[in-house]
Automatic annotation (TrEMBL):
It comes from the Bacteria. This is Putative membrane protein. It comes from Roseococcus suduntuyensis. Keywords: Membrane, Transmembrane, Transmembrane helix. The lineage of its organism: Bacteria, Pseudomonadati, Pseudomonadota, Alphaproteobacteria, Acetobacterales. The chain crosses the membrane at residues 6-25, 37-55, 61-79, 91-114.
Length: 119
C-alpha cells in the first residue's frame, strides 16, 4: 500500500469515526472506544502526510499536520482531566482542520484528489 493510500484511507476512517463520536452519547464506553480509534486513524493520517510527494519539500499544509499532532494528545489530556468543555473545543477545532484539509485537497487543481473527483 502506498503512502498516499495510507493517508487517504486513514483520513476517511478518521472522518467517519469522528461523525460517529459526534452522534454517540457522550461519556459512554462506545464513545470512548470510537474516539480512541478515531484519534489513532487521525494521527496516522497526519503522520502519513509527511510521506506524500510535495515537490521535495514541506508545504504550508504541513503546519496543519504539526498542529494536529499537538492538538490530539492535548484533547485526550483534557478529557482525562475531566475538562470536557476544553476537550470538546479542542477536538471539534481539530476536526475542522481535517475537514478543511480534505476540502482543499479536493478542490485545488493539480492535487491528486482534484483529478480523481473532477478529472
Amino acid at each position: 500500500m502506498s503512502m498516499l493510500q495510507v493517508h487517504l484511507w486513514s483520513s476517511l476512517l478518521a472522518a467517519a469515526l469522528i461523525l460517529s463520536v459526534l452522534v454517540l452519547p457522550k461519556g459512554t464506553a462506545r464513545h470512548r472506544l470510537a474516539g480512541r480509534v478515531a484519534v489513532g486513524a487521525w494521527a496516522l493520517a497526519a503522520a502519513s502526510s509527511f510521506g506524500l510527494p510535495a515537490w521535495g519539500h514541506l508545504t504550508p499544509i504541513h503546519a496543519l499536520t504539526l498542529l494536529t499532532l499537538v492538538m490530539l494528545p492535548l484533547g485526550i489530556r483534557y478529557a482525562r482531566q475531566g475538562r470536557i468543555a476544553a476537550h470538546r473545543t479542542t477536538m471539534l477545532a481539530t476536526a475542522g482542520g481535517l475537514l478543511t484539509a480534505g476540502i482543499f485537497a479536493t478542490v485545488i487543481p493539480g492535487r491528486y484528489l482534484y483529478g480523481v473527483v473532477f478529472g
